[in-house]
Design goal:
Blueprint (H helix, E strand, L loop, with lengths): L4 E7 L2 H12 L11 E7 L2 E7 L9 E4 L3 H11 L15 E7 L5 E7 L2 H12 L6
Parallel strand pairs: 1-3, 4-6
Antiparallel strand pairs: 2-3, 5-6
């Protein structure tokens, strides 16, 4: 039985990497067990690890669900100086999505449900309550 998950990205400098990911995620790490490593619980049981080490190429993208992809893109362009990224959609896909890269080459992205009632049901299932958007 699988009940939790982690995914890891590598950065060349943990201090810069931690600061960058704190801005991306709007919070400090939930767990820093040792030097060169920081971890955030994104939703219950789902962890993102940022580790100092050898960079990997062409990994990802790790896409994070958001309630307003345009607002998040604008926030990151301003706060992290990332290049603006295109937002995609297809009629057969229930979300719109976009991909960007962190300063270490890790591919990240966001997705947003097109059907807001479906989005609220997913949030309620995962978090246990709905949220105001």
């Amino acid at each position: 039985m699988i009940f939790e998950m982690t995914t890891q990205v590598r950065v060349s400098n943990i201090k810069e990497g931690q600061k960058w990911y704190e801005t991306l995620l709007n919070k400090r790490p939930d767990f820093t067990p040792h030097e060169g490593f920081a971890e955030w619980e994104l939703i219950p049981g789902c962890w993102l690890q940022v580790a100092e080490g050898t960079l990997t190429e062409d990994n990802g993208p790790l896409r994070l669900g958001v309630t307003n992809i345009e607002a998040e893109r604008n926030r990151l362009v301003e706060a992290l100086k990332i290049d603006s990224f295109e937002i995609h959609s297809r009629t057969e896909v229930p979300v719109k999505w976009g991909t960007f890269t962190d300063p270490w080459g890790n591919q990240l992205g966001f997705f947003e449900y097109l059907d807001k009632s479906e989005e609220q049901e997913r949030i309620k299932t995962i978090v246990g309550t709905t949220i105001e958007v």
